[in-house]
């Protein structure tokens, strides 16, 4: 199971993934979201990637088709334009806020797993930019985010052809993610 912060994102990804569809889990870590997708949509093709060798090894042990590499780079080209769901829990903590994280945060993971650049959106913006090449028209992009990052990413999403942008909040009203749809072909 995904960690509690990512559960809503994982459930939305399952809802958006048709049986027999294709999903990509970027920065998969242990592969919890990819495994959830495969469990609930066993007929779907679920691929994952991560830049950390140990994470990829762990995801593979968890039964995930995981590849070592940066975002979409290690994924097969035959999925371009055919992906129904891209889900990503990329590093999104602003660099200046890393020292504010709980002390035990880095017991099992390095700052690489958290550092999202100056405002926390550097890798998020890369995913938004690269996703249209892989997503089919009408496909879903689901990103874990924090704070006011939804507002900061709005122009990026619109500029790269995403519509129906929805902020995902937990039961306490805290922002946990963002969901967007690649503009259908008729809208381009």
Summarize the structure.
This protein has 188 residues and is an alpha/beta fold. It has helices at residues 7-16, 32-40, 53-61, 122-134, 149-159; strands at residues 22-26, 45-50, 65-68, 83-88, 135-144, 162-169, 175-182. It contains 5 helices and 7 strands.
Structural key phrases:
seven-stranded mixed β-sheet, globular, alpha/beta, 188 residues, 5 helices
Task: Provide the fold topology.
Elements: H1 7-16, E1 22-26, H2 32-40, E2 45-50, H3 53-61, E3 65-68, E4 83-88, H4 122-134, E5 135-144, H5 149-159, E6 162-169, E7 175-182
Parallel strand pairs: 1-2, 1-4, 2-3, 4-5
Antiparallel strand pairs: 5-7, 6-7
Neighbour order of strands in the largest sheet: 3-2-1-4-5-7-6
Largest sheet: 7 strands, mixed
CATH topology: Rossmann fold
Succession of helices and strands: HEHEHEEHEHEE
Unreliable sequence segments: none
> Do you know the CATH architecture?
3-Layer(aba) Sandwich
Number of domains: 1
- Tally of individual helices: 5
CATH class: Alpha Beta
The total strand number stands at 7
The chain-level mean pLDDT equals 87
What separation lies between the terminal Cα atoms? Answer: 37 Å
Compute the gyration radius: what is it? Answer: 15 Å
* Estimated share of beta-strand residues: 25-35%
Detailed description of the structure:
By secondary structure, the chain is α/β, with parallel strands linked by helices. The protein has one domain (about 5-185): Rossmann fold, CATH 3.40.50.150. The chain has helices spanning about 5-15, 30-40, 55-60, 120-135, 150-160, and strands spanning about 20-25, 45-50, 65-70, 85-90, 135-145, 160-170, 175-180. It has a seven-stranded mixed beta sheet with strand order 3-2-1-4-5-7-6, with helices on both faces. α1 (about 5-15) packs parallel to α2. The N and C termini lie far apart (about 35 Å). The mean pLDDT is about 85.
